[in-house]
Design a protein that fits this description.
With 66 residues, this protein is of the alpha+beta class. The protein has helices spanning 15-22, 26-35, 51-64, and strands at residues 12-13, 41-43, 46-50. The protein has one domain: Molybdopterin biosynthesis moea protein, domain 2.
């Protein structure tokens, strides 16, 4: 029996899932990863973004607002 986790319980997100959670476009997520603004882990050819890295990215956005 397979158990599907709710998005809040996921540990790793694909770029598409991260874009949905952040409410950004998929290409924006790829640009953020390429610029080093959004950390990711790479396993083979796939890239995954940790939930903690998504949260840290959003926290950093809060501190940049003026």
């Amino acid at each position: 029996m397979s158990t599907v986790l709710a998005p809040a319980e996921q540990l790793l997100y694909t770029s598409e899932e991260a874009a949905t959670v952040l409410r950004f476009g998929r290409s924006t997520v790829y640009e953020l990863m390429a610029a080093g603004e959004l950390k990711f882990v790479k396993r083979g050819r796939s890239r995954r973004i940790r939930r903690s890295d998504l949260e840290a990215f959003v926290d950093n956005l809060e501190s940049q607002t003026v």
